[in-house]
């Protein structure tokens, strides 16, 4: 009886020990889970902070671009206002000079007509209000054409008919003097101004569309978050894609295998991670081999060398890359990750 009680007590002690071990294991698993959760939370917080910094930088760039566009538009409006002001001043000077000349020549004009009525000499005239100035097309005598449209002078009508554009005709018709109409028509400044205005409107539309597209792209980038473990897995990801590329494309595989055992280097001075980077200033040229050393890691070149070795090791005697089932060989993510870290 006593023996049985002792055995039962021993079994209970063993059961209690098993329960305590189970609880201890669960506490350890819980502690590990909590630690992983804390690490993930820290990475997420860091990623969120970096994303916020990038967002602020992009918003600042967008505001800068908007401010520059607004400043450029204000400058263009100021230039257009100055051009219009200079044109009005020029036309005013022409009007004043013609009116001043007309007041001084009015008496000589009347005397010239009287002399011309009793003389056989040729009559020489111009449009600057001298004798017989009314005969010139520059003389400011208004009339209306067959469509009932009013013109300030024959020169206005003549210069306007050079163009088919209604806008150009309207601008010449609105010129204050015949000389101004001649300048607009003779130098084709009406069409040039219309083309410049159209070009300016087109540029503004294109600029606005580019700004809208830039804002859409920035918004899209802000909404896309890169996975937290990308820095740890990106090399394995590219190595998987590179292996599949050369396994399933004969031309690419032949080019890679034709490099024999030569060292492969991605010649990119701006990419020290995947490429060779810039030449090293401290080390310079290697005196033993005569080659230049670089600061970059050349990860892509080393990756291609590993892929080349795997292709050679797995290549069939007939030069094909086939599995025993007759299909192109495929490799799993875990196998690629393990080989990338070797």
Summed up:
The protein is an all-alpha fold and 342 residues long.
Report on this structure.
By secondary structure, the chain is mainly α. Helix content is 66%, strand content 1%. The chain has nine helices and two strands; from the N terminus they run αββαααααααα. It has two domains: 61-225, no CATH class; 233-340, no CATH class. The two termini are 65 Å apart. It has a two-stranded antiparallel sheet.
Give the SSE string: HEEHHHHHHHH
What is the overall shape?
Answer: elongated
What are the segments in which pLDDT stays under 50 over at least 5 consecutive residues? Answer: 322-330
Main sheet: which strands, in order across?
Answer: 1-2
Q: What number of domains?
A: 2
Alpha-beta content class:
mainly alpha
Q: What is the overall pLDDT average?
A: 78
- What is the straight-line distance between the termini? 65 Å
The radius of gyration computed from the alpha-carbon positions, rounded to a whole number of angstroms, is 45 Å
Q: Helical percent range?
A: 55-70%
**Largest β-sheet summary:** 2 strands, antiparallel
Estimate the strand proportion.
under 5%
Number of helices: 9
Number of β-strand runs: 2
Key terms:
single chain; mainly alpha; 2 domains; two-stranded antiparallel sheet
């Amino acid at each position: 009886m006593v023996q049985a009680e002792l055995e039962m007590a021993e079994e209970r002690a063993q059961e209690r020990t098993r329960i305590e071990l189970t609880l201890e294991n669960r506490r350890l698993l819980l502690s590990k889970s909590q630690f992983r959760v804390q690490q993930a939370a820290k990475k997420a917080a860091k990623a969120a902070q970096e994303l916020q910094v990038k967002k602020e930088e992009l918003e600042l760039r967008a505001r800068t671009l908007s401010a520059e566009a607004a400043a450029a538009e204000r400058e263009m409006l100021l230039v257009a206002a100055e051009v219009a002001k200079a044109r009005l001043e020029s036309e005013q000077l022409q009007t004043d000079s013609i009116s001043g000349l007309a007041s001084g020549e009015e008496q000589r004009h009347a005397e010239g007509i009287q002399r011309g009525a009793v003389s056989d000499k040729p009559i020489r005239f111009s449009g600057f209000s001298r004798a017989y100035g009314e005969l010139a097309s520059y003389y400011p005598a208004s009339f209306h054409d067959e469509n009932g449209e009013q013109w300030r002078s024959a020169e206005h009508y003549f210069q306007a008919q050079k163009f088919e554009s209604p806008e150009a005709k309207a601008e010449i018709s609105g010129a204050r003097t015949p000389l101004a109409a001649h300048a607009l028509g003779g130098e084709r400044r009406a069409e040039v101004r219309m083309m410049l205005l159209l070009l300016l409107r087109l540029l503004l539309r294109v600029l606005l569309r580019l700004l809208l597209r830039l804002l859409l792209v920035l918004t899209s980038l802000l909404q896309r978050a890169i996975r937290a473990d990308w820095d740890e897995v990106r090399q394995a990801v590219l190595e998987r894609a590179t292996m599949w590329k050369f396994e399933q494309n004969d031309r690419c595989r032949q080019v890679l295998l034709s490099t024999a055992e030569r060292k492969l280097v991605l010649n990119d001075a701006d990419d020290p991670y995947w490429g060779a980077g810039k030449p090293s200033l401290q080390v310079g040229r290697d005196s033993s081999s005569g080659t230049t050393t670089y600061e970059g890691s050349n990860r892509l070149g080393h990756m291609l060398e590993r892929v080349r070795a795997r292709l050679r090791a797995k290549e069939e005697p007939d030069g094909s890359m086939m599995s025993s089932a007759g299909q192109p060989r495929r490799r799993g993510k875990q196998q690629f990750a393990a080989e990338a870290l070797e």
